[in-house]
Amino acid sequence: MHDFTATYTDLYQINMAQVYFQQGKHEHKAVFDYFFRKLPFEGGYAVFAGLETLLEVLEDFKFSDDDLEFLKDQGLDSEFLNYLKGFRFEGNIISATEGDIVFPTRPVLQVEANMVEAQLIETILLNILNFQTLVATKASRIRKSAGEQMLIDFGMRRAQSTGAYHASRAAFIGGFEATSNVVAGKDFNIPISGTMAHSFVQSYDDELTAFRDFANSHPENTILLIDTYDTLKIGLPNAITVGKEMKSRGEELKGVRLDSGDLSYLAKKCRKAFDEAGLEHVKIAASNQLDEYVIRSLKEQKGPIDVFGVGTNLVIGDPDAALDGVYKLAFANDKPRIKLSENLAKLTLPHKKQVYRLRNSEGKLTGADAVTLRDETDIKHMNHPFDVSKSLSFKNCNEEALLHYVMKDGIRTEPPKRLEDIKVYSRKRLAEFSEEFQRFENPHLYKIGISDQLLKEREALRNHYKNKDA
Amino acid sequence: MHDFTATYTDLYQINMAQVYFQQGKHEHKAVFDYFFRKLPFEGGYAVFAGLETLLEVLEDFKFSDDDLEFLKDQGLDSEFLNYLKGFRFEGNIISATEGDIVFPTRPVLQVEANMVEAQLIETILLNILNFQTLVATKASRIRKSAGEQMLIDFGMRRAQSTGAYHASRAAFIGGFEATSNVVAGKDFNIPISGTMAHSFVQSYDDELTAFRDFANSHPENTILLIDTYDTLKIGLPNAITVGKEMKSRGEELKGVRLDSGDLSYLAKKCRKAFDEAGLEHVKIAASNQLDEYVIRSLKEQKGPIDVFGVGTNLVIGDPDAALDGVYKLAFANDKPRIKLSENLAKLTLPHKKQVYRLRNSEGKLTGADAVTLRDETDIKHMNHPFDVSKSLSFKNCNEEALLHYVMKDGIRTEPPKRLEDIKVYSRKRLAEFSEEFQRFENPHLYKIGISDQLLKEREALRNHYKNKDA
């Protein structure tokens, strides 16, 4: 299930593409940068996600006859529509590795293609990468709080329509173990997990019978929801009864779930009662408006919770709910390009570029990524991108190039990656960053610099337009 | 394009359904309520949206062979899976009319179906109705600020993955005139609109040529983006040049778009310059992080802006990004059902119910909806749902029943509605509510009461479970 078509776009992309086509610009090569300006959640980093989804969409990018008929009715030019009939994306994608830790200002991905190709994929690219990066980053923060505890994505019902699908994918990359989302589990090979709802218990005349029926039907996977009527007075005793019955049959009650009330307090009461009943194996799961802060608090209180089910706040990327990623032209028809702004921080970086992660001679992070012209090497000095008074010199650095060709002429350079591998890579990359970058409150600022040559190119372009209006 | 399958659900629905099936509960009739507890955006009302999407999904609700194969691998029972093979939704939907103004606590929609049917559609129902109601409500607030000005949805690139699709639908219901979203325009017959991006201007060596090429390609629909280099010094003079050229050819420059800087100030400067150049017909469109508050401010400053393009804040329903709608069992196997909670406001309302909008003898709103048992009539007294000390008597009220059968035995009771008709209905319904309910700051509280009989039934059930644990 992926539901992106070539008409999954803003109309202006098609309107602009028509002009490019008519002006022969579909022969012009362009380079666009994908980057964002602000880290989500006031955090210290972001987890890049969505690349595989994007590549899959680009491989399959075409206009159906139905699409073209619709566009014709919208008054678009018939010669142009004829060109779109056979249109495929045949450009290059140079990208950070999915799952890598990324930062504002620096390109996360570049598109090299003709102007029409590059323009027509803008909306879909932004839509995919912005959202999955947002949710993977949120998931990573929740993982940070949860430590070794199990995390399950429960967010589908409050997700933004079919956004739930990619939310579950991104949550897994960011560090979740499982999802309640069946179709995401099926398509992405994410372990799926499910307990029971209050309605299940309510549909019976008494809770105990409800619990027994569930245990009989799912002996391998019984997690009882114990707060429908009263957690400690009704639910817990019933769960102990069923736990003992299962034990006597040689089965194991897997767990109980708490979905309301004081989760830490209730978990302690439950743990004690289960242990006293000889049911030490019963796990305690908790849900109800959890996020990285609530989970941190529950851990601080030493609530003996084994599994956290996180819903709304995860899948909508609360409280930001959107990453401000943009797609800006950096190079076209053999010339570097810039977008000016009264707001210096909205100035774009022209040219084909590369991004290096600077490491010391032992390979450890130095705390900075440098943005350079594509083919520059031996960077010894970098500049603050927006504050010319600030710069940084360094020596004996190992430069790790962060952007790689993942698609050439519309064809992937390597086979699709397994989601599990992306997740493992992401954890490994994040582990390189010290606690200071990962903390929630005023995290340490990871530096992004631009090389002397890139600065020079940018200033030359700025002056060009400044002089123009004089 | 709609991408909901029967596996677009939480696993626990399927797990519970298996138990119901094994216990013969697929023969039991159940009634579930869909309602929410908190109005979004600290506002005074919500706009109900998503019903047509839901009905379309329910008509087509089935498990594919592929789905069943996957569920088999997950360890589900083969007899149950065999039952799912031929599964269709054959229940009833009793709902508020799409576009109506709705409030917390009272049922917005009820599902009457067998336990398996009702449980299996829970996730998809919540997912659809929660999100579209959120965005339609947001759109309605933005419409309130914008007054007669045109509103266009520009949010696709920051939407939550394919959530953009239904966001555009809901935005139209809430009061937007058009969208940039091509596929939503195509599928929902929403007018689509598009201007140009900065990249278009950047791809040229000079802005004037870019503008001219666009005007030649789209003479009927040229809206020039004038802030790529410098709005007043470069963009505006170039737009005037092109506007005059078009005029001399007997064409009309449709408008310009401002996407950065002080929108009110720039709009005034542009308006004056266009008027002085004899280009009074050129409209001014503005975009850039707009929402109902920014638009209100722009209107207060009398910025002569004709069109507002609203993106991120609309399509993600910022700042809430989720409506807290829930789906609770009210009746099963011939008995009313309740979910208790330490938090009184989380107590559910048992039984098959109806909701009445109370009007005075002239048909005007009295400011209250009453929730009653399904077949009660002649309500003269209602009670606060959670505060027993509060009640309200009334007489000579006209009771407008708000919930109607829209699906019986899995078949719609009437043909699909046109989106335009839903929107017109919604505007008409909202217009009945006075300014006090529509204001953004501390809006007037619309009252929800429950009838004496419903209160009695609820209290009887509460006591039943209270006595149980004694």
Automatic annotation (TrEMBL), chains A, B:
It catalyses: 5-phospho-alpha-D-ribose 1-diphosphate + nicotinate + ATP + H2O = nicotinate beta-D-ribonucleotide + ADP + phosphate + diphosphate. Residues 151-320 form the Nicotinate/nicotinamide phosphoribosyltransferase domain. It is an enzyme of class 6 (ligase). GO terms for molecular function: nicotinamide phosphoribosyltransferase activity; nicotinate phosphoribosyltransferase activity. It holds the Pfam family NAPRTase_N. Residues 352-456 form the Nicotinate phosphoribosyltransferase C-terminal domain. The lineage of its organism: Bacteria, Pseudomonadati, Bacteroidota, Flavobacteriia, Flavobacteriales. Transiently phosphorylated on a His residue during the reaction cycle. Phosphorylation strongly increases the affinity for substrates and increases the rate of nicotinate D-ribonucleotide production. Dephosphorylation regenerates the low-affinity form of the enzyme, leading to product release. GO terms for cellular component: cytosol. Keywords: Glycosyltransferase, Ligase, Phosphoprotein, Pyridine nucleotide biosynthesis, Transferase. It comes from the Bacteria. This is Nicotinate phosphoribosyltransferase. Pathway: Cofactor biosynthesis; NAD(+) biosynthesis; nicotinate D-ribonucleotide from nicotinate: step 1/1. NCBIfam families: NAPRTase_put, PRK09243.1-2, PRK12484.1. Its EC number is 6.3.4.21. One of its GO terms (biological process) is NAD+ biosynthetic process via the salvage pathway. Belongs to the NAPRTase family. Catalyzes the first step in the biosynthesis of NAD from nicotinic acid, the ATP-dependent synthesis of beta-nicotinate D-ribonucleotide from nicotinate and 5-phospho-D-ribose 1-phosphate. CDD domains: NAPRTase_A. InterPro entries: Aldolase_TIM (IPR013785), N/Namide_PRibTrfase (IPR041525), NAPRTase_C (IPR041619), NAPRTase_N (IPR040727), Nic_PRibTrfase-Fam (IPR007229), Nic_PRibTrfase_pncB (IPR006405), Nicotinate_pribotase-like_C (IPR036068). Residues 9-130 form the Nicotinate phosphoribosyltransferase N-terminal domain.
